[in-house]
Amino acid sequence: AKSAGGDSHVFFNPLLTEAAEQRRHMERDLRSAIRNHEFVLFYQPVIDLVTQRLCGAEALIRWRHPTRGLVMPDSFIPLAEKTGLVVEMGLMMLDVACQQLVSWQNQGLDYSLSLNVSGRQIPDGLPPAKLQEMARRYSISPSKLALEITEGVMLHDIEKSLGWLNAVHELGFKVYLDDFGTGYSSLSYLKLFPVDTLKVDKSFVRDMQDGSNEHTLVGAIIAMGRSLGLDIVAEGVELQSHLTALQRMGCHYAQGYYFSRPVPAEEFDAVATRVTAL
Ligand code: C2E
Ligand code: CA
Ligand code: CA
Ligand code: CA
């Protein structure tokens, strides 16, 4: 390659080298975490606003790091995506999610569970046939498992992504469009993709007050979603006033700190009892 000119020494940036070193270290850490099964799922309750009952959960990954404690996804998912490790992690989490559904089923609980899927997993990292095989192996109904995607997922290869979505949907799995309202061309995607549910992004819900722009936007998203025959989940519900407004606007489901933070599986039953009593 051609040199960038006489002063190529400017590329010796000790800060950059350090960052690269840190990244390599983190990547090594991620690989060993996969081998050692350090990733777990936490579960955040989702409430049916019509029946006022708990109807399921969103699964959110956590890293139980041997020295750093509980590590949140925002600090490792981006690197896992960049390195492709998110594919292997995703398959492991699918397994955990299926086991959780089985456990609820065995307790006579008819809960749904949604799992976040990154663009890197689609279409080849999470083959529809694999999903079907898992559902069969665990005898769970595909309709109880939802895959949360964002519009970004579709930007790589529209044809292939659409093929994946259609296949997954035809197998009976649910498709949720996550962070709705934050991307671009949201509306045209809705026409194109087999989506069951819209998740209203928490940034809108958080700033909802009577008469605010966010209030108007959330109302419009709910009305539009409903008229397209979609279910609506509002995320980031932190206040009683959010809940009241959402109910008035005809939102079907809600999740957020108002009900509960994401909790480990062993705490979910206790939270479920408390949430239902709210
Ligand atoms: P997300 O899918 O939009 O998930 C919602 C995030 O909002 C979660 O953060 C959740 O803990 C948080 N949250 C829930 N209720 C409230 C609330 O009332 N107020 C506020 N301010 N926040 C609330 P978390 O668990 O840190 O996850 C961050 C992101 O990491 C997720 O955003 C998702 O994009 C990604 N992620 C999580 N688990 C997975 C996974 O298994 N696979 C992949 N590929 N990505 C994941
Ligand atoms: Ca999500
Ligand atoms: Ca979201
Ligand atoms: Ca997100």
Which terms summarize this structure?
278 residues; alpha/beta; 8-stranded mixed barrel; globular; disordered N terminus; binds ligand C2E
Your description of this structure?
By secondary structure, the protein is of the alpha/beta class. Strands 1-2-4-5-6-7-8-9 form an eight-stranded mixed beta barrel, surrounded by four helices. Helices cover 44% and strands 20% of the residues. It has helices at residues 14-35, 77-83, 85-106, 128-137, 158-170, 186-192, 202-206, 213-227, 240-248, 265-276, and strands spanning 39-48, 53-65, 69-71, 112-116, 145-149, 174-180, 197-200, 231-234, 253-254, 263-264. The longest helix is centred in the first third of the chain and has 22 residues, at 14-35. The chain binds ligand C2E and calcium ion (CA) (3 copies). Ligand C2E binds next to strand 2, helix 3 and strand 6.
Can you lay out the helices and strands and say which pair or pack?
Blueprint: H1 14-35, E1 39-48, E2 53-65, E3 69-71, H2 77-83, H3 85-106, E4 112-116, H4 128-137, E5 145-149, H5 158-170, E6 174-180, H6 186-192, E7 197-200, H7 202-206, H8 213-227, E8 231-234, H9 240-248, E9 253-254, E10 263-264, H10 265-276
Parallel strand pairs: 2-4, 4-5, 5-6, 6-7, 7-8, 8-9
Antiparallel strand pairs: 1-2, 1-9, 1-10, 2-3
Helix pairs in contact: 2-3
Ligand C2E is lined by residues 44, 60-61, 72-74, 77, 86, 93, 116, 118, 178-179, 202, 235-238, 256-257, 262.
